[in-house]
Structure formats: structure tokens, C-alpha cells
From TrEMBL:
Keywords in alphabetical order: DNA-binding, Transcription, Transcription regulation
Family matches, as Pfam families: HTH_1, LysR_substrate
Keyword Signal: no
Source organism (scientific name): Pigmentiphaga soli
Domain of life: Bacteria
Protein name as annotated: LysR family transcriptional regulator
Coiled-coil ranges (or none): none
Protein family: Belongs to the LysR transcriptional regulatory family.
Limits of the HTH lysR-type domain: 1-53
Amino acid sequence: MWAFTKVVSHGSFSEAARDMRLSRSAVSKYIIDLEAELGVQLLNRSTHHASPTDAGQHYYERCVAILSEIEEADLAVSHLQAEPRGTLRVNAPMSFGTMHLGTAVSDFMLQYPGIRIQLVLSDQHLDTVQEGFDVTLRIADAPPPSLTARQIAPAPRVLCASPDYLKRAGTPRHPHDLRGHDCLNYGYLATGTQWKLTGRDGEDHWIHPTWKLSTNNGEILRDAALGGHGIALLPTFIVGEHLRSGSLRAILPRYKAPETSIYALYPPARYLPVKLRAFVDFLSDRFFRKTEWNVAHR
């Protein structure tokens, strides 16, 4: 597996052999034996180049995660874990990743230069264990019971629209008024195509919004709301600055969407790897008291 990942990363048997301080024929034999054992071709070969097949690319991604865990075990046994190091595979939501996590990861790498980050952004609920991630950041009202979860930060959501839209279409006073408005819908809501709003009296209101735009990306919904195309239900970490500036206005402040938080999810383990503990602690310290997200309603 180690020889295979080296060939894929270098794109060459010769370069992989040089890196591993082995002969080219030894590396080639390792790959041939591996393909024979798996019963599948892993590499496309030419005279000077090697590239993974579709099966090989999938196998490579899993091998990288497995070899990272082996590296972690070796470091632990050799007492080198005082300084976190190794590869950390992270999955995170798209908008949170591009708007906030990118700079956080950059600062984290400055603080922990021995850790390499492989970051995959996706709003789909990927299987943390099956996909080989060390940690998944997910925005939810409750974490899945099958994984260990730590709350990184609250992620309140607010109904909002531009002043131009509200001037043109009117400001809703009750959740049922939303049925007469253009709405901008996030495609991966836990409640499906419905919006759930709870009044201060505890009464729940379920609304089927008449959406003008439905997408799986919060920043696109924010831009549509800024353009006056309708009402959006979005986390304040996406629209907070626009609520403060007044380019978006919060509506129906007496009614709240279900509370959600940003969670760090990782497989249950007796011993939490030091690199993972350092990353989760760093994110919690950075984001938990992010008060500018919790803006006052305008």
C-alpha cells in the first residue's frame, strides 16, 4: 500500500522507488502483487508515467487515510506525540468552509506545522467512517448517536430579506403570511421542503414555502436575498454582516427556526489522536464565542 501511494503521488515508478530507496523492480513487484491480491488493475502504466484507474483512485484515497493512522500509531508508540503531526482529513459544509474555516485552517497550520490538512467541502452528509475522514463538521439540531460529537459553536438561523423586497412585497407579520411570498429554499434542510417556526408561546408552525429558488448552497441564497428575490432562512454566520449593515433585514423576530449548532463529529475511540484533539480544541476556542454571528434583529 505504501509503494502504491508513492507511485500515485509521484506519477512514476522510478520516482517512487527513489523516494522509498528501493529498486524500480521491487516497487513494481509490490504493485503487481497488490493488484493480484485485490483482483483489480490499480494503475495505468506507460513508459514514463503511471496514473490510477478509477478503482485505483478510490483505493488510493482509502490507503492515504489508513497509512495516516499507521503513522499516528507509530508516533504514539515512539512517544513523539508531544508535538501533533500527521495528516488530518476534514469534511466541512461548503459555505462555512469558504467563509470561515479557510482562514481558521491557515492559522491552525501556522500553530501546528507538523500537521497536514486534507479538507473536503461538501453540503452532502458524507459518511465520516466510510469516507475515511478523521473529523466531519456538520450543522445540525442534534448530532447522530453513532458518532462522538463536540459542539464547536451555535449556528442560529434567521428569516431575512432585502429592504427593497419588503418594500415591494410587504413584511410578513405571521408565519402563515410566508405562503404569499417568494421564498429562497435550502435544499438540504433536515425538515425537507418545510420551514418549522416556533413562536414565543411554544406553538409550532409548519410552512411549505413557495420557493422561487432552491439550491444546496447558502451563499447563493444570500446573494439572491440581497438581490431582492425573496425571503431566505439562513444561518447568521452567512448573513450576519448584512444584517448589521442593513442590506438584509430580519423578519418575524417572535418566531424561531429550530436551534442548530456546528458539531465536530468523529468515530468513537478510546484514545483521541492528539492531532484531532488539537484541531477540535482550536476550532472551539476560535468559534464558540463568535458573538458577531448573533446579531440583533433589525
